[in-house]
Amino acid sequence: MAQQAQRSLLNTLFLWGTLILALILVPLKLVLQGLRWSEVGMFLLMYTLIGLSVTIGYHRLFSHRAFRAAWPLRLAFLVFGAAAFENSALWWSSDHRQHHRFVDDPEGDPYAISKGFWYAHWVWVMEGAVRPLEAVEDLQKDPLVRWQHRYHFWIGAVVALIPVYVGWATGNVWGHAAIGLLLRIVATHHSTFLINSAAHRWGSQPYSDTNSSRDNAFLAPLTFGEGYHNFHHKWQWDYRNAAKWYQWDPGKWLISLFAWVGLAHGLRRVPETQIQRARLDMEAKRLAAVLASTSPTLTEDLRERLGLAKARMEEALGTFQSRREAWEALTAEWKAKGQARGAAWQDLRGQWKSERSRCQQELRAAWADWKAARLKVLAFDGAS
Ligand SMILES: [Zn+2]
Ligand SMILES: [Zn+2]
Description:
By secondary structure, this protein is mainly alpha-helical.
């Protein structure tokens, strides 16, 4: 209990202290000195390096094992991630794995939104609960993770002070301390916290409504792609948080880049057909609720049309998935045998490519059919 009280006091002083100091000193500095480009540059550099280390390192790599990374990359994530002042990667991952396992459960989820917005945002940190490390044995085997766990505060302090060293070298210590250190700490904290609070409160649920997680495009730029939290809770082990190409997820793009240069491997991703199936199920569920409130005799045609369109979608998705799995099994078999990829291989590859394009075509047509049926139901609902 004494340990919890001590942690609670330290965390509260740190979180409120940095926020209050930033709220006083930053406007004061702006009035007295204005803002210099070098200060903005240092702020953005530190915010980006540290934020990416939390998103890609603490979250996707350590907490979820969504990919594997070479040691220099792990070291960089651990060193810069420490400067987020969000505890060690080991503690962070332990809490986060419990969050996914018991999401929304006030007993098991360390930052359950069911205990209120502010509780999930930062009160849970200030409570300073002393929880044992859970389900992180895999991470404890990594000597770099163990080292960071021991010294994270000091590593974080050395890194977080980089803007101050720059300020000292350029004769502008206080300007860099206010913007690159103080404001940066507050910005890093609250952008991370918003994923636990706002991304469990506001946004859409295109993939699942079995928990409170939401996709929220406004949060993605602040957190290097972590805003698509509904997708993330559905497939937490996927190295992406946003599966669509136009959704802002620099974390995903950088992981792909690391893989391309050989610093990362084993990137895990859910098949596209599973994503589409989840979307279809969610839309069907919502439409069923709309139809449930209408007279069955008036909407019989609509129900039938929707049922047929859904069946077509399911068939198209099932066929595509089984064809893909067959192709992947064949590739694995070919690889295991160590067969040379000559003309026979090119033949098989050609066959798969045309089969894939047929499946994609049918899937596009089935989606169009489904969307038309869906619009009819929505139009009926709007008119009635
Ligand atoms: Zn969550
Ligand atoms: Zn997660």
